């Protein structure tokens, strides 16, 4: 299995992404989960990460708390989407598993130094603060990372937190800039693809029909998450953003994209946090990422439902 570190700000969709990974041990070896401030403050994202591990019945997974504020800005959160706890929807018990003592950034650095070079993939599902801090603190790890596969950004679909910017990039654009300029192989799952992964009613019912604790909890999470998108975008179901990352790692042939240049806007008055994605190759700048544009949504939900059924 491929070794991964999931860097996350749960978030209902983060939770589903984590469940999918933990349900897929043949493909993915989750070395640890690192929490970052994003959808809700760090005190809640680290707690929610542990709630999700216990929901999956995997309390041995290591969870670390990371950065509680973006590199240079005040934290912007998204309770309007995810609710006050970040995991509103199901009623889940407080976690009993411990939080690890080490800081998330220290864990990321030590893991990359100790594991064979090119064997560890980073999977950021929230603002890129932990990842950028690790790259800045320990530049020697840059060449040891196999790949970064992240959820963030947008091109034709543009923004969800401002007209120009997607939430994860907007919250910490300076961190995103460090990651996109790092030269590390990058695969990006932007809003353009995640808004094609919609939890329609039959897909939601399929989660519930699993008849399990996990199936039920996921159905309730996606129902909660959907309220916002229905009102806001008239969407026929919640876009399952972050699970696109873990699904991509398990079954990449569900997705297609292009190698393009992406720069992060950190200055613009109206465009801070925008991913300036050169889809048509007009800039002459070298490609720095595989930007995913399409998904086989039925295949994705088949995979997800089948895997959740294993938990
Ligand atoms: C991203 O922002 C968060 O609200 C979601 O968890 C996802 O990672 C979508 O823009
Ligand atoms: Ca997230």
Automatic annotation (TrEMBL):
Return the EC number: 3.2.-.-
Q: Which domain of life is it from?
A: Bacteria
Provide the GO MF annotations for this entry.
Answer: purine nucleosidase activity; uridine nucleosidase activity
Asked whether the keyword Hydrolase is assigned, the reply is yes
- Any idea where the Inosine/uridine-preferring nucleoside hydrolase domain is? 4-302
Q: Which Pfam families does this entry report, sorted A to Z?
A: IU_nuc_hydro
UniProt entry tagged with the keyword Kinase: no
A GO BP entry: purine nucleoside catabolic process
Q: Which UniProt keywords apply?
A: Glycosidase, Hydrolase
Q: Which EC main class describes this enzyme? A: hydrolase
User: Which first-to-last residue range defines the signal peptide?
Assistant: none
Q: Name one GO cellular component term.
A: cytosol
Name the chain's protein: Pyrimidine-specific ribonucleoside hydrolase RihA
Q: To which species is this protein native?
A: Actibacterium lipolyticum
